[in-house]
Amino acid sequence: MERLKYISPTLTERTTKQMQIINWDDYFMAVAYISSLRSKDPRTQVGACIVNKSNRIISTGYNGMPNNCEDSKMPWQNKEGLEGKYLYVVHSEQNAILHAKVDLTDCIIYTTLFPCNECSKSIIQSGISEIVYLSDKYNNTEQTIASRFILDMAGVKYRQLISNTKIEVNFNNITQN
Ligand code: ZN
């Protein structure tokens, strides 16, 4: 039984046993994606994973309410003002940056959604030098346009991960072997 089902048309690496192994971009984006599954946001789950130049994971994050703010007592609606979530939620990139315990200079952040302007400010200030993202669904919003503007000016690179990879994790496949 397969422990992990991994289908990657863009596969570039093979082990000596001719096993398929996951490439770095897919691996880190998968960690970002799995992190997003922790988010309680009913509409948008976003995950992030920060990696250093040695391909070591430094930190992860997902969007959620600040620590010690009880989720059930916080507003999750998509509306402006005190009744909506926007004034309270900490974005995945911010959480990943704030949870990191080391200097982030020249690290890469993988994120399932292109960062908003607030997160881009934090990314720039942290010293992260590259962003790899999956979705760009808010491409034309003011936040994203402002984001690109400051990232370009600050010299932070960004690229979309184009991948048709499918990864299926089934814990039963591991425990039954
Ligand atoms: Zn953000």
Question: What is the fold's blueprint, element by element?
Answer:
Blueprint: E1 4-7, H1 24-36, E2 47-51, E3 57-62, H2 92-99, E4 108-113, H3 117-126, E5 130-135, H4 142-154, E6 157-160, E7 166-169, H5 171-175
Helix pairs in contact: 3-4
The structure holds zinc ion.
Residues 91, 93, 115-116, 118-119 line the site of zinc ion.
Features:
two-stranded antiparallel ribbon; binds zinc ion; five-stranded mixed β-sheet; globular
Please provide a written account of the structure:
The chain has 177 residues and is of the alpha/beta class. Helix content is 28%, strand content 20%. It has five helices and seven strands. The strands form two sheets. A five-stranded mixed sheet has the order 3-2-4-5-6. A two-stranded antiparallel ribbon has the order 1-7. Helix 4 links the parallel strand 5 and strand 6. Helix 3 (117-126) runs parallel beside helix 4 (142-154). The chain is globular and about 50 Å long. The termini are close together. The mean pLDDT is 91. The structure holds zinc ion. Zinc ion binds next to helix 3. Zinc ion is lined by residues 91, 93, 115-116, 118-119.
What's the overall average pLDDT, rounded?
Answer: 91
Major sheet: 5 strands, mixed
Structural class: alpha/beta
What's the helix count?
5
Radius of gyration, in Å, reads 17 Å
Distance between the termini: 8 Å
Helix content: 25-40%
